[in-house]
From TrEMBL, chain B:
CDD domains: TM_PBP1_transp_TpRbsC_like (cd06580). The keyword Transferase does not apply. One of its GO terms (molecular function) is transmembrane transporter activity. Keywords: Cell membrane, Membrane, Transmembrane, Transmembrane helix. InterPro entries: ABC_transp_permease. This is Ribose transport system permease protein RbsC. It comes from uncultured Anaerotruncus sp. One of its GO terms (cellular component) is plasma membrane.
Amino acid sequence: MKKLLAILMASAMVLTVAGCGGGGNSSSTGSESSSTPEGGEEVKFSSAMVTDVGGVNDQSFNQSAWEGLQTAQKDMGIEVKYIESKQEAEYGPNLEILSDEGHDLIWGVGFMLQSAVMDAAAKNPETMYALVDSDFGADAPKNTIGVLFRAQEPSFLVGYIAGKVTETDKVGFVGGMKSETIDQFEYGFRAGVAYAAKELDKEIAVDVQYANSFGDSGLGKSIAQKMYAEGCDIVFHAAGNVGVGVIEAAKENDKWVIGVDQDQNHLAPDNVLTSAMKMVGKAMNIVIQDMIDGKDLGGQTLVFGIKEGCAGIAPTSEKNVPEDVLADTIVLEEKIVSEEIVPPYSEDTFNAFIESLAK
Amino acid sequence: MLLTLTLAINITLMYSAPLIFTSLGGVLSERSGVVNIGLEGMMVIGAFTGAAVGYFSQNPWLGFLCAGLAGGFLALFHAIACVSFRANQTISGVALNFIGLGAALFLSRIFFDGATMTKPVPNKMPKAFTWLLGDTENQILRNLNVDITVLLAMGIAVLLWFILYKTKWGLRIRAVGEHPAAADTLGINVYRIRYIAVILSGVLAGFGGAAQSLAVVSIFSPTVISGHGFIALAAVIFGKWTPQGSVLACLLFGFAQALVVLLGGGTVNIPPQLLSMLPYVLTIVVLVLFVGRSAAPKASGTPYEKGVR
């Protein structure tokens, strides 16, 4: 009996591992190494990435990152590869695997990998590392690149659209957890609403609430439910999977919702007004191209936004946003590119922006 | 005021429905003498099956039903390990939690082009009173139009209470959970009762998962069930292993979440970190002040071996 039990439990464990990894290993990898570019000339460059726990098909920035590398493979003919992390403890080992394989540029996707990338960079001074959504501060190691986004820019644009489209003069913002990154979304959005309100010469209120979670969809739905009940007719979310619940509430109440990071229109085609997009993959392509061109990016923090083509509103916006509003938004986009308007990214810059608006 | 009140009711019920299903499953299993820590895993597989079947068949009821079957299937392993092979019930339950999540993600990748998220289901579980209220614009009535899963959960709670306390079957389940040897000498088949109770607890947990992925939201994502199974497990203990008690415990937790939502944001600025603590602080306070001593079914957690004294 004991033996039978042992066999049963062993097979159960094997099943679990297989279920998680889709293979015998605890982390799955994928590589595509046909290095002949469509153009013809061959470039000897290889780049690999480690995902955070979201995995490569998370319909968010990990997926965007991997699609970016695939584009780079197609356009520049480089070798690309990814490793998925199933848990936080795997960041270090996964980076180590890639370091041993000797890639020219290794990506850590997501701010959660910051310390793991830092360690790997210290151990392998010859290899170049880049980190998406975080940087290494003033004394960054010479073999690291920080890649940041000005998320306030697309947030400003969707805020402007929300301000123009709202009929109740009240819109909402649902944040995941208060942090510098989410602040960019919140204050960018609020500034955009304020800008539209000034143009229309009226007051538009913005309800702000944090879920203090990035995973609890039920919480997101409840918060959005409350906002809609209290008279908001458009809600913008920057809260990961909490946003799934926000979109659900919009569907049930037949109100507008604004998506984040990727074009989220497919989740609710009749209710997602637009999305504030952050194109991680595009930024990765720019960095790779610069490195191939021989630029020394080591130790730098690069910031990408609308100007670099790495942020903007979703292409599906034309479906639900009125034509004249969309046209005005495109004008506004150009003003951001020319730095005539600089969207705020924190409480202080937001207050300064509102003051300058009042003048 | 009335608006806020109905909103609180709406959020409380929405939040607690999946928990109620699952904790009723927990009550059933523990009352028969088998600890079921694997509720979380059964909820996850139920949530995935519900969303996947709901997406492909476009019928949420079929999805809901299949979710129960999937949860029951997973629970079958728990029954085999814990009842037939007398394995440690905690270990088996923990293993099932991993298997549930792993299998759900694995299957999701197969059926949805490698994505760990399903596509949104075209039809979700209906609201309970749409037939009566129609598509009303009145916000208060809208708030009272809860998901049909809420009514289902309540109905099952009453049914379970009736079965446990008013029928021969219920007496047998409770007897097996308190003193299986005595029940055995009276000719009750301990193994069969435990098998049935554990499998049904999986079915209920599967329903709980589907209530989350087909009613609260309409999609499966890896975090759609994040700790709900464990909260339901806590509600079982909180509710002193009775159906009515655990329903109240789930409602209390849902209400605490509603408070978090209603107190957050707005003009009074309470730090969200403090608010997030509220459900747990409230639980502890109620536990200390009102619940008092609670005793688990005596044989809960110990495997039964025929003829051993």
